[in-house]
Amino acid sequence: MASQKPLTGKVALVTGASRGLGAGIALALGDAGADVAVTDLLVEGAQEDPLSLVSYSILAAHFARSGGVHTLEVCKKIEEMGVQSRACKMDVTCPDEICQVVADIEAQWGGIDILVNNAGVMDNFALLEKQNPDMWERDLKVNLSGAFNCIRAVWPGMKKKKWGRIVNISSFVAQTGALAQPGYGASKAGLLGLSRSLALEGARHNITVNAVLPGFIDTEAVRLQDRKTMERITDRIAMKRLGQVGEVAAAVVFLAGPEASYITGAALPVAGGADLFVF
Ligand SMILES: NC(=O)c1ccc[n+]([C@@H]2O[C@H](COP(=O)([O-])OP(=O)(O)OC[C@H]3O[C@@H](n4cnc5c(N)ncnc54)[C@H](O)[C@@H]3O)[C@@H](O)[C@H]2O)c1
């Protein structure tokens, strides 16, 4: 029978955990018994001027401006569960910042066992001829290279422990494509190649690397869509509803836990059939 707290004694780091899926995943890992580093580009009170975020990401600027940053709050909720947590400002595009955070966690908690690469940008919408090359580069830099940077930072510690779990949050669009989001679609498909390649390398060190492919999940960012778009989206999902954050978080906890010890290189859709042909 599965243990109630399967991740007791493990240390997890989640990227992009100030809201949405990242926050939900961090809370679920804490609830499963792990100590959790809650990291994000944005931390309450510490972020740059929201206006300076506009050129980086419209979504980041929106949430910084509207009080939608909850990194410290998520950390506090996890501590209330009786495990350790700390909130860290960490930009996944900045290897020096990542190395500093990882070194601090390793010194404090004795190494990272579970890494969830959740940080992502999904606000670059334009057909090809209107795509801005800088935004294409940004999509790849955050969504794909960001995961690469974080894995590189935790890998030596996992190798030393001969134990590691890496979960990359891709998207169902890695398999279907994403109209008017070529950078997003390419970066999320790239995460599958990265996961499988590192699964091969990690196997000899008992490090598993898997990808979760969420469908349309009911997060603050998705809720910004207008009602008509939401209706069109829901109609196109086989299960005729959005997914809940907890439904994705449960898949991540499973892949991070002892029962998934022989699963690596997998791409697990949690999409309610959004990836299927709906007729
Ligand atoms: N919500 C969905 O329907 C859905 C579907 C498929 C995949 N996903 C993926 O799940 C992840 C989370 O989605 P969400 O809906 O919660 O999105 P979101 O935009 O609400 O959250 C993304 C988080 O990443 C952080 N972030 C952005 N750039 C960063 C950087 N450079 N360094 C560190 N943190 C950074 C943001 O501050 C934010 O907290 C994303 O990778 C997204 O692509 C979401």
Task: Present the secondary structure layout.
Layout: E1 11-14, H1 20-31, E2 35-40, H2 50-53, H3 58-65, H4 71-79, E3 85-89, H5 95-109, E4 114-117, H6 133-161, E5 164-169, H7 173-176, H8 182-202, E6 207-214, H9 227-235, H10 245-256, E7 267-270
Parallel strand pairs: 1-2, 1-4, 2-3, 4-5, 5-6, 6-7
Helix pairs in contact: 1-4, 1-10, 5-6, 6-8
The rounded Rg comes to 18 Å
Distinct ligands, ions and cofactors found in the model: nicotinamide-adenine-dinucleotide
Uncertain segments are: none
Strand order of the largest sheet: 3-2-1-4-5-6-7
**CATH homologous superfamily caption:** NAD(P)-binding Rossmann-like Domain
The number of helices is 10
The quaternary organization reads as single chain
Total domain count: 1
Structural class estimated from helices and strands: alpha/beta
H/E order of the elements? EHEHHHEHEHEHHEHHE
CATH fold-level assignment:
Rossmann fold
Sheet having the most strands: 7 strands, parallel
In the CATH hierarchy, what is the architecture at level 2?
3-Layer(aba) Sandwich
